[in-house]
């Protein structure tokens, strides 16, 4: 199964999440926090923290750890989610 991330092809296994395929390909971070530009990828892995958000087929703020990759998906990474992160809330140092 193949999809693209920022225009680059990524191979994944059928039923694998976008995050799983990215991690398997060696990609550990695919966005940065909106406020401090810190790298983010998978943190909780259960869809609670929103650290792994991507845009999939034009739909923003998709949690990559929850969304199964589908053949032909177009995934875009970005600078940060539109949901608050710990940096924006002043909780991170």
TrEMBL record:
A Pfam family the protein falls into: Fer2_4
Signal peptide per UniProt: none
One annotated GO molecular function: iron-sulfur cluster binding
Full protein name: (2Fe-2S)-binding protein
